[in-house]
Amino acid sequence: MENDIFKSLADPSRRTLLDLLHASDGRTLNDLCTHLDMSRFGVMKHLNILEEAGLITTRKAGREKLHYLNAVPIRQIYERWVSKYAEPWVNGLLSLQNELERETNMENKPRHVNRIAIKAAPEQVWQALTDPAKTSKFWFNCAIRSTWEIDSPFDLWNGEEKKAEGVILDIEPPNKLVMSWRFISFPGTENDTPSRITWEIAAHAELHGVTLVTVVHDEFEQAANTARILENGLPIVLSGMKTLLETGEMLAGD
Predict the structure, then answer these.
(1) Which of 65, 64, 53, 61 is closest to 18 using CA atoms?
(2) From which domain of life does this come (predicted)?
């Protein structure tokens, strides 16, 4: 997978596409084509390569297909290589995952989309997401507590301090979890309204024993500070979950 990422980044047209998504996330093919001097087919080919490498994700919104920058593999490259190679180069990769909040003219469209492949069954991913003993190992030392029923509350605790809270909006074990989200103890989030996090968990269509986990954070138009925290935090949470399920270890720095 790392080889695919490096090969994808080696092409200047694909770097341009990533820059465009960095500047404004959730863009259509037509929009992206206006910024490159190549055929529509050529742009589609480059987008497919980026998606196969995991650097972008796509979502359907009506008849449109929207493209999003995926911060998770960039975060993994940082964790893997920052201590071995030139930090300025790695910081250039890291900059792709920063400041992703974008203006949009479409209502209710997903905003921040992160995806990761984990060598585990969907049931194992679900347990990691809902078991406080496991979440405390990859979610910034926070344990999640809930009865896991629609309309039931949940809390995220770091020791005796509650960090976040919300309500279970939809739940379909082991494939889908939708929750409202509000930070409790982060400065600057006091006036933020609840936003929404959707977890989509599905067995990979082609790779046996691999599960794709997609996390969508949206409905944060009135929660800008919450969005900034989660856009940086969720990729780390996903990387930590992957590390825990595949190795039994905690992500360095957790």
Answers:
(1) 53
(2) Bacteria
46 CA to centre of own chain: 21
pLDDT for residue 136:
95
Interatomic CA distance for residues 217 and 227, integer angstroms: 8
In terms of DSSP bridges, do strands 143-146 and 153-158 run parallel, antiparallel, or are they unpaired?
Answer: antiparallel
Angle at Cα 22 formed by Cα 20 and Cα 25, nearest 5°?
Answer: 85
For 104, residues 6+ apart whose C-beta sits below 8 A from its C-beta are: 26, 111
- Inter-residue contact 72 to 114 (CB < 8 Å): yes
**What DSSP designation does 61 have?**
E
E strand or H helix that includes residue 197: strand 195-203
* Assessment of whether the complete model's pTM goes beyond 0.90: no
| Structure confidence by residue, pLDDT tens digits, 116-162 | 999 999 999 999 999 999 999 999 999 999 999 999 999 999 999 99
Read off φ and ψ for residue 22, nearest 5 degrees: -65, -40
Instruction: Map out the domains of the chain with their CATH numbers.
Output: 2-97 (1.10.10.10), 112-247 (3.30.530.20)
Phi, psi of 86, deg, nearest 5:
-60, 120
Cα–Cα distances (Å) from 219 to 19, 169, 173, in that order, read: 24, 13, 23
Q: Is 141 helix (H, G, I), strand (E, B) or coil?
A: coil
- Please tell me the distance from the alpha carbon of residue 229 to that of residue 139, in angstroms, as a whole number: 13
What span, in angstroms and rounded, lies between the C-alpha atoms of 201 and 178? 11
Whether residue 96 contacts residue 76, with contact meaning beta carbons closer than 8 Å, is answered with no
For residue 161, what are its two tokens? Answer: 């301090």
Distance CA 248, CA 22 (A): 33
How far apart CA 224 and CA 102 sit, in angstroms, is: 10
